């Protein structure tokens, strides 16, 4: 396998030229249109991959494993940051793999590699491709999940604002679907903000609630109790029959808490006291 070092050296020295030619050829096979920015990025990625391959042919798979993982991770995160589906990347891998195989076969002929050497080169190439695909997908999923969690957190903050409407009185309009995650957000983030407002009365408006189950109803009641311990009186508005039924089914009594049809009615009653 005396020609292997020569191939490895060639891959390092000619990585940029080889990458440019390969990318120019391969983009013609893609069904979707590829921007110039993507073409340039592809050339840089291909060149890096060729250098990794050259190093692995000399030093072994283990020598580039960690660096290849980190490189693949950056590629996956970059794709996720663009908010494009991972399928955009994966769909291109078969044609990309074939392009590398064709290029390496030409080098095998050029450098007169033996059958054993050709098998080694192709084995190393496919190993690196599989590692790259796996890590790219994992990195994409990790960053996507983080983006989704951050978005959900921001949505939760916007969906339960505490609005001071007059001195000593605030309203919290509950909107959309109330699930355990949102109740947890209310308990950990919204309740402390309510306490900091130094209000005497809070109107919890349910008119924008789509659905609520019995478990969530109990959690909400616990929040009301905590607010009561903080000296904040809670009145409710906009409770529809199905929400009231969920509370009754859970054995939650609303008799001690005043409830009104609208926020306006609740505010008028508060001002009469």
TrEMBL record:
STAS domain segment(s): 159-270
Coiled-coil spans in chain: none
InterPro entries: Bact_StressResp_Reg, STAS_dom, STAS_dom_sf
Domain of life: Bacteria
Protein's recorded name: Anti-anti-sigma factor
Organism annotation: Planococcus lenghuensis
């Amino acid at each position: 396998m005396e020609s292997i070092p020569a191939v490895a050296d060639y891959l390092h020295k000619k990585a940029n030229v080889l990458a440019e030619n390969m990318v120019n050829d391969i983009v013609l096979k893609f069904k979707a249109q590829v921007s110039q920015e993507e073409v340039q990025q592809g050339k840089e990625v291909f060149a890096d991959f060729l250098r990794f391959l050259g190093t692995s042919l000399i030093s072994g798979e283990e020598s580039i494993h960690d660096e290849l993982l980190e490189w693949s991770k950056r590629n996956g995160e970059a794709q996720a940051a663009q908010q494009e589906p991972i399928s955009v990347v994966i769909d291109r891998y078969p044609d990309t793999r074939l392009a590398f195989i064709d290029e390496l076969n030409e080098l095998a002929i050029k450098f007169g590699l033996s059958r054993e050497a050709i098998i080694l080169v192709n084995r190393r190439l496919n190993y690196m491709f599989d590692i790259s695909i796996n890590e790219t997908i994992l990195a994409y999923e990790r960053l996507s999940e983080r983006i989704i969690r951050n978005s959900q957190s921001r949505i939760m903050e916007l969906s339960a604002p505490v609005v001071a409407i007059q001195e000593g009185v605030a309203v919290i309009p509950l909107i959309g679907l109330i699930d355990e995650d949102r109740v947890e957000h209310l308990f950990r983030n919204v309740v402390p903000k309510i306490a900091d407002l130094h209000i005497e009365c809070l109107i919890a408006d349910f008119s924008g609630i789509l659905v609520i189950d019995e478990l969530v109803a109990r959690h909400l009641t616990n929040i009301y109790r905590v607010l009561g311990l903080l000296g904040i009186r809670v009145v409710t508005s906009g409770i529809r029959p199905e929400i009231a039924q969920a509370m009754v089914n859970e054995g939650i009594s609303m008799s001690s808490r005043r409830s009104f049809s609208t926020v306006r009615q609740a505010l008028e009653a508060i001002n009469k006291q």
